[in-house]
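Sample 3 of the quickstart, ligand magnesium ion:
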Amino acid sequence: MDEIGDFLSAYSTLIALVGVNALLALSVWVTLYAGQLTLGNAAFMAIGAYVSALLGRHLGTPFPIALVIGAIAAGATAAPLGLTVFRLRGVYLAIATLAFGEVVRVILLATPITGKGQGLNGIPPTTEVWHVYVSLAVVAYVLWRVQGSTVGRAWAAIREDETAAASQGIPVRRYKLAAFVAGALVAAWAGGLSAHLTFSIEPNDFAFTRAVQILVFAVVGGIPNPLGPIFGAALLTALPELLRPLKDYRDILQGLILLLVIIYLPRGLVTLAQLRRTRRLQEIGAADVA
Amino acid sequence: MLLEAAGVTKRFGGVVAVNAVDLAISQRQAVGLIGPNGAGKTTLINLISGQLRADAGAIRLAGADVTGAPPHALTARGIARTFQGVRLFKGLSTIENVLVGRHVRMRADALRRLWPLGIPDRADRDRVRALLERVGLTGRAEALAGELSYGDQRRLEIARALASEPRLLLLDEPAAGMNPAETGRLRDLIRALIDEDIAILLIEHDVRLVMGTCERIAVLNFGRKIAEGGPAEIQSSVAVREAYLGSEDVA
Ligand SMILES: Nc1ncnc2c1ncn2[C@@H]1O[C@H](COP(=O)(O)OP(=O)(O)OP(=O)(O)O)[C@@H](O)[C@H]1O
Ligand SMILES: [Mg+2]
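Result:
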């Protein structure tokens, strides 16, 4: 038992980080499952992080309430944004959401209360590992159950064929918007947790690279069900640590593993558990993610 | 009247695909829609089902003006359709496809599903299985839609459309790719649906299927309705014969 205790304390930051990244990967899973490639979740994460940290600092708002308000702020931003950007599809949608991320970053860089380029320092480390994992368990459970509901089926139908989905009575835009807002809420929650884990945040934490990283977690893990993004985030977050002894070869090996997964498991790690079904899907040329 | 289209027009650039067409369908009626390739049949169905917006004219469903209503709203009001090119959700199973078709008749169950016990959509699944049985797809319930044979895909599309419990069913060449035996079963199914108070607009190149199911037939040519009447009338119409012969000359 001592060994496990030692392990946990030595790696508690990493363990918490795995959980936060899994939440972020789930946040983009929702839109990917509906066939929409959006890259705005780094910005929603930023909104959750900044809003919760600023509330705690200036108004003394209790941590859980600050997290909730941060998530609501992101959701309230996502709704009007989604109404606009879901006129677009595919790469255009991706670029529009990415541009939104840049706008958020530039606003953070220019605003005195968010600390401009320096960001916010001395954020109290309120987040405990169990906060992260309870959040992850709740989000994963809810998404898993929603996947089997009328809503999840409508998302899958939209991914497969929007025109056919609309003619089955599915209000396509509304369902896309719901996925987008749900993703924003989860991303902001993860942002709030991570801000209170790392002491400091700055605008560049939530830039383009972060947006892509979140997407890679989800895609490498796989979109068929919410377990995929969790696996993807866990592997890609822990891998650099596990490979640390290899020093100079670490980055090369990490890139290589990523490449192998994408080539041999293009629908993600979770498809290892359902190779047959995946092969059938590929044979009929069913919709890939996005 | 269940459906009344009045002066409906649709242009694509210079082409007038549907030109001031009037069409009325009453309850329990099957109307055939025939015409040479490119006559505007599919475009007319797209206008009725809301996939396309008419440039002019009005569409009424059971007395209510539904001109310009989006497709999902029209499905909720009782219009269902199949697609000429078959548009199934290929990566979903047969039964899931039909469940999606039932979307507008199902209670949203996302919240109820958060409680881990029970199957909130059991009644709907039973209905969907009955529909699969009806079109002869019981054995293929768990197959992916994209894996089905062409005839099975066409039947699945009909089952999916029926799942929304439509008042008006629009079928765009449902017999294309079917063998004579399958077409025969399709004819029986269409007749049974009419007996169940579903009105049908049937586009079909298989003239025998149209004559054998529809009490009234409308003929389109270059976007215009050139004839309408009972099967015998249409068969003896000079204008109809010229339209078809004319198109063969061009082709
Ligand atoms: N989306 C579109 N954009 C431009 N032109 C179109 C479009 N859809 C149809 N058309 C044109 O409108 C005309 C009518 O086409 P439509 O598909 O309605 O004919 P159809 O009677 O269904 O023919 P077929 O028997 O070949 O299915 C054709 O000239 C076609 O090229
Ligand atoms: Mg056609």
